[in-house]
Each structure stands twice: as structure tokens, then as C-alpha cells.
Amino acid sequence: MSVLKLDHLGYSYDNKKTMVLDGIDYEFEKGTVYAIVGKSGAGKTTLLSLLSGLTTATSGKIWFQDKDLSKIDRYRFRSRDVGVVFQSFNLLPHMTAVENVVLSMDISGKKLKDKKKTALELLAKVGLTEDKAGRRVLKLSGGEQQRVAIARALSYEPDIILADEPTGNLDMGTQDEIIDIFKRLAAQEDKCVIIVTHSPAVAQSADAVFELAPLRGASAS
Amino acid sequence: MYILKNAWKSISRSKGRNILIGIIVVVIAMSSCIALSIQRAADKAKTSGLDSLQITAQISVNRQAMMEKAKNSTDTASGGRSQMLEAMQGMEELSLEELQKYAQSSYLEGFTYTLQSSMDASGELEAVDTTGGSSEDTSSGTSSESASGQNGWQGFPGGMGGGQDGGKLSPPGGMGSQGDFTVTGYSSHEAMTSFVDGTSKITDGTVFDEDTSEKVCIISEELATLNELEVGDSITLANPNDEDETFAFKVVGIYETTSTDSGQGGGMMRFSTASDPANQIYMSYNTLKAVTDQSEKNADSETDSETGMVRTTALRSQVSGTYILKDMESYEAFEQDVRDMGLSEEYTVSSSDVTAYEQSLLPLENLSKFSFYFFVIVLAIGAVILVVFNIFNIRERKYEVGVLTAIGMKKGKVALQFVLELFIVTFIAILVGTAAGAVSSAPIANQLLSSQVSSQQNQTQQRNENFGIPDDVGQGGGAPQAPGGDFGDFSEGGFGSLFGAQVTNYVSEINASTDFTVVMELMGIGVLLTLLSSCAAVVFILRYEPLKILSNRS
Q1: Is A86 part of any domain?
Q2: What is the three-class DSSP state of B9?
Q3: Closest approach of B7 to chain A, Cα-based (Å)
């Protein structure tokens, strides 16, 4: 059974005049790493916003475990069922790395044991030392912030992981490590991992590639 | 729970901002605390003062209304005067029967009445004279009947309108003269307030019987000494309007008095021997009534063809009733009651106790009013500052709202966190402000009150100066030097206060300590301020779309 299903999905920023996405059908399964590729302006980030429930489709539907995503509590969906690694991280800069992770766990409302310890373990898993984990996000480098964002997305054990250019700020070595983590999550924990990427290497290591064809003129994706 | 934790963390992260909010709220809380404490103290002082006040009330002609009328018509100088005289003529003090009718009111604790007249010395009797040269003038004035002009207004013993009794009005202006003595007839011993409160005391003999109609009286020690009188001796008094008409009284008691006030009819203090406390002769109501009735029988009267006024040589007298009431409530109820019984609007129910008390509260009321406005202004300004501050704050934290909602925190919870943050800061600040206010409210309140009192006193003094009343004369409670004009005719006992000449003992100390109610009120204000100022924040948060914030940011 697919965990996310796009059903004739369409999206427009200006009331259907210019469609960014139009008539897209696709199914995302558990235990698989997907790479969404496409040129700039193809609507990759828009699709990610739709999948993460930050916005709703203009036409068509997204089904989450056979439920219409536009009809369910999307705050709950975002806080429990989907972990998003934003392109610009969207961390709270005045909080420490570990506080950012724990906050997500708090918001999810899931009964998670020893949140701080779990957060530190997760941060260690993405390559952040305890010392760095205790620093304010503001004081961390771009790559380190990206790792915090990934750790945050994983912290409350969502079924779906969405990542927008998760390796954009990482060196090749770390990039591989992160991709390994995503693959392990899919293979071992049966998660559905969806990665938006420009990187052919990342796309190659994915189990499936979903290419978006551009519908509008090129602009920043 | 994590919302509270987040709120607390957020507060400790942005110390500068929260300290600023805290200072604003501390100032608001402190000012409000002082203002509320003052108001409560003022209210308490007012009610507790009234509780312990035994109220005596009088029904009298509404002179104030008449004064207004007269003032309005003073533009046409002489016309104003005659109009006023006309108005005065049309007004009658209530007769004893009418006074007694109103005494039926169930709100009363008691009713006493007095008859007052002014009589001259006759035979060898001499009045105590401490007025120096003016005594000469007065006595000559008294013997020359029908004074006019300047002497005319001096000639009223109890004030304008002159004596009336049993509904008969002696015409004012140029009628009747001031005697050497003020003779007062009391309906009961209870009405003799100076004896009741101990300012006067019988030193020889006894007081007259309440109901007696015999010609017996009590006189002051000074008068007795001056005339070498003893208990059992007789004195002869004459009608100032008709020196041939004399009345003999037997002295049954001699009293000493510590009063410097002339009591009723003190309007002419220092200008007339009659208002000297030593020249007060007391007897029973019945005795004096018999005398005035007799005088009326003997009197000649004529009607002035020009003015239509009736001139009579009868001994003038004035009856007044004193209604004794338990408290302010019964006083108000009594007023309503007598109106229902048919007392017309031309008469007022007044109480010198209440007036004096209200007068004494004037600075306190001013302070209370001032503190109320101050409180409202502080609150309004504080609220505006906090609202603006919060709007800026929330705009600054827009990104945070975007991130929190993007990772699934509901907008309501975000708003709650923000409100909580503000509430915690406000709560702590209110505690600090209240503590500071509680410590400083009592001394500040008394400081403010004393400046109010002194400004009130300055105002009174200034007014006295405008009326040419020197301070020391003002102490006497009258307005003797009220310059000849129209107002002069009105000066009588209590009416002197119109000129502010009476010295009022202002309430100059209150206990403005902060009590539990004030603290609760402040907490209420705190909650209200928090809610009000965070309303803006909540509205902003609810309007934000996470994606919009985040995409704008990136």
C-alpha cells in the first residue's frame, strides 16, 4: 500500500492562471528512497510543500494512507507523520541544536523516552559532537545546521522523510554518510524517504527517481 | 507543559526586551497600586466618618436658589435689590406646626426646636461688651428703630428675613433692630447642645424646666459678674423695637462657657454684643414663646404704602427645628420622606454636620478624583505602549512563528506560548510594582493629601482676602465685614460659610495602605492588560501562514 499517492495533482500560485504542477499521478511506497529531480522551476519545492502539508493542492488530491491530506489535521500530520528537512533548514537560531530537536519531539506529542538523550544520539548519528549539539544553531556552520535539520526530521520517528537538497551544503564524504542514513531508514525502518535534489549522485543512489517536467518559465525552485 | 517550558526559555533568552516590558508594567502597577489605595482609603474614610457622625438636620428656605436669582439680577443694580427683597418677602420660614409635621417622619431619632430672639438690656442691666467702640454704635443703632442702609443689614439677628414666628414674616430691610442679648428658648434640654457636649456648664443654681412657661432663665457667669447678679435675682429685657416694652425674668441658673463661638445667630460676631457668648440668655421655649406672643399683641403695625411691607414693633423671633438622625442613610431617607409629605422645593433639608463633614473631605475627594484620573491615564498609556510593543515583538518573531507552525505546532499553541511569556513577565512585574506601591502608597498619599489641604486652605484664604475678611475674624465663623452690597444682607450664622470664612478641619491624614482587595484588583488589571496587549499578537499569529513566512525568508 502506498503511503503517499498523488492523484491528478495540480498547483497554481495565482488561482489556476499559471500552473506550477498539473495532473501529476505518482505513488510513494514505504521502505523506498525516492529522488525528485527536475530543472529549476519544475516545481520540486512546491511539490515538497504539498507533500509536507504546508499548502494544499489547487486541483487533484494527495492521499496519505488512504486519507485525503486536505481533509485531515495537517498540523498533526506535520508534527507526527512527516519529517521535513527544509532547504533553508528552518531551525530556531537562538536555540541550541539539541533544543531544536527536543522541541520537535515535544510538538509531536508522541510519548518518547528520554528526549534529550535520543536527540544527542541522533545528532551524533548525523555527525554532530555533543559539544556542537549544545551550541546555539546560530553559531553552527551551514553543514552543521543541515545535520541538525536532518536530526530534527528524524527525531519523532515519522513514516515519511522529506528532504529539500539535504546534501547541498555538505562535502562529498558527509554527503555519502547522509545518503547512507536515509537508505538505512528506508531499508531497516521501512520509512518512505523523498529527496528533492539537483545532484546526479544522490539521484543515482535512490531506489526510484521521479522527474518533474517544467510547466512554467525558469525561476528559482 | 512544553509550552510553558518554551515560554520560560524564551523569556530568559530575550532578557533585554522582557526587562523593558517589566519596567513598564512595574510603573503601571505601582501607580495603579497607589491610586487604588488612595481611592479605597478615601472611600473608607468617608464611610467610617459618616458612621460615627450623628446627624442633625434643619429645614430652611432655599437661600442658595434665591442668591442665584439675586445674583442674576444684580446687573440692574437697584432693580436687583428690590427684586431680591421681593423674593425674600415671598419666602417664609416654616412654622413650628409645619416643622412638627415633618418631625413625624419615621426616620427620625428625635426632634427639638428652639425659638430665638434678640432683646435689649433694660434698667440697670448691662451687656458684656468686648467689641470696643462698636458697642456704642450698636446700642445706638438698636435704640433708633428702623435702621436703614448700613445699619439695616446689621440689624438682623438671625440673618435675613428677620424674625418670623407662627408663619408671620417681619419684612426685611429697614425693619427691626439688633438687641444686646440673644435670647434662646429651647424645647428640651437635649436641644441645648453646648450643655450636652460640655462646652457650657451650670455653675450655680439649676437649669429651667423644659416645659416651664414661667419667666425664668439662665445667664452666663460673665454677665452675672458684670451686673452682680445671683441666682434668684431678676433681670429686665426690652424689645429693641419698642424700648418701653419690657419683660422681667428670674435668673435660676448661672453657667460658664468655654465657647468662643456665638452659637446660633453668630453672624454678627464682633460687631454686636448679642453674639458674644456671654450675652446668651437661655430659657425654655414656652417662656420665650409667651413673651413673643405677648409682644405681638402689644405691637403697633403699619403698612408701607410704597413697598407694601408691614412694619411692626413686635419682638422679632425665629423658630428653628433640629431633626436628629441616626446616620447618613436615614438622613437621605428623611429628606425624601419630607418631600413626600409635601415640602416644597423652596425649602431645603440641610445638615451642618454633613456639610461640615463633606467640607472636611474636600481635599480627600480632590485627591481621590485626581488619583482616579491618574489611574485611568496611566492604564491607557500603559496599555497602548504594551500593545505597540507586542506588535513589534511579534513581527520580529515572525520567523519563529513560521518555523513552529511548519513543524506542526498549532497556531493556538504558539499564541498561547506568546501570551504566557507576556503573562509571566507582567505577573512578576505586577508583584514588584505592587510591593513598591504598597510601601510608598501611605506616605505618598499623605503627602499628596497635605498639598491638597494646603492648596484648599490657600484658596479659602485667597477668597477671604477677596472679600476683605482678615484671617482672625474668619475664625469666628461669620462674615461681619461683608461689604454693604446685596450679599451682606444674607450673612447669618451658617451662611457665613458662603464666604469661606469658616475654618474647616480638613481630613489631612488617611491610611492608604494596600490591602488584599487592591492586590486582587491589580492582578485583574494585569490579566486584562496581558490579554489586551497580546490580543494583537494573537491576531497576527492566527493570520500568519507558515509557508509564506518561510518562503519570504528564504
Answers
A1: yes
A2: helix
A3: 12
